Amino acid sequence: MTEIALRLACADYVRVLPLAAGQVRAEGIALDLVLGRGGSWPARASMLSRALSDPALHGGEGSMAQHVRRVAAGDRSHVGIPVFVLRGFPHRDLYVRRGGPVQTPADLRGRRVGMYSWVASGSVWYRHAQAELGVPVGAVQWVIGDIEGESFAPAGDLPQGVSPAPQGRAIAEMLAAGELDAMWSPPRPRLYHPDGGALARLLPDFVPVERDYFNRHRFWPAMHLIVLRRAVWEANPWIGRALVDAFDASEAEFEASQSGFPVGTPWQEAELERTAAAMGHEYSRNGVGPNQAMIEAFCATAHALGLTARRVTADEYFSEYLASGGH
User: For the purposes of burial, counting CB atoms within 10 Å of the CB of 188, is it exposed (0-12), middle (13-18) or buried (19 or more)?
Assistant: First the structure.
């Protein structure tokens, strides 16, 4: 069988490195993963754009929020594959001014809260988490802008009552100066330090909070998935299932390398055991079935926030993949 050449862009997440290095392979596919730098947020934004528009690529890492808006609008230019390359719990990303007026989640009510984008995938999960902390979306005054002067996500059209940050002002600086009371930020801001920085986490002991979130929802929130251009998909729709299997194999290879001889950090083995006890061994598995609750929660929250004009279901979000026999 002649292998199909497939070139995808993706950040250099450790869980995809076994696949990128050829330790595992996608059956029937000569896969070339063009790796971006996972730690650089502006570079990540450029990579997401390239995955959609660069003619040298067949697709790659994409935004869950952008894709749900495409599906809701009837734009079928790209096909979503349920490979969730970027996941993360949101609670650790909530920052406040050290010694400021916000000491508990309840203190957020009526306050000015900054965020990097109104329409990005991470911001969907931030508001989902904030509502569960007892502070609905409408209970705060939102300000949208660059975290530290580097734009790395689309701000989107801001709804009534949501303000843009002043020209030239960074959200983190505004928080440190007392012009904001809190902010949600994917990258750790430079002004943050756990002991003495101007900015601190509102929930410094975030692990039990995030563990409780997992216990209630039974999912690890995803922000990014793999998308393919429609022409590539229609020529060989079987590649969706092959990619899910290959990325799952890469996950398994990574997990085996961690538990086989864990030397990354001094207490890594203890953390691996705690994570397995709390979340099981398949918390990062790909596919629609294992992630049905997560996808439904994301789509429902995006619709409630006004990002989509209608409610998209998980089955519609991945309709082409499921129709091809994907799981």
Answer: middle
> Are 176 and 157 part of one and the same domain?
yes
Could you give phi then psi for residue 271, rounded to 5 degrees? Answer: -65, -40
Q: How many domains are there within the chain? A: 2
Instruction: Please tell me whether residues 173 and 230 are part of one structural domain.
Output: no
Per-residue pLDDT tens digits for 207-244? 999 999 999 999 999 999 999 999 999 999 999 999 99
Residues 59, 161 within the same domain: no
Sign of the C-alpha dihedral computed for residues 213, 309, 152 and 44 taken in this order:
positive
Distance of CA 28 to the CA centre of its chain: 28
Structure tokens at 184: 């949600």
Domain containing 106 equals: 91-217
Token code pair at residue 187:
């990258």
8 Å CB contact between 172 and 199: yes
* Residues present in the chain in total: 327
pLDDT of 77 over the 80 cut: yes
Per-residue pLDDT reduced to its tens digit, 261-314: 767 788 888 999 999 999 999 999 999 999 999 999 999 999 999 999 999 999
Is the pLDDT at 186 greater than 70, yes or no? yes
Question: How far are the Cα atoms of 177, 255, 278 from residue 66, in angstroms, in the given order?
Answer: 33, 30, 31
Q: Side chain identity at 98, as an amino acid letter? A: R
Look-up of token digits 């990128």: 20
Q: Which of 197, 217, 237 is the last residue of a domain?
A: 217
β 59-63/4-11 pair status: parallel
Give yes or no for residue 127 having a pLDDT over 80: yes
Strands, E assignment, 254-323: none
Residues 78 and 111 in one domain: no
Q: Do both 110 and 213 map to the same domain?
A: yes
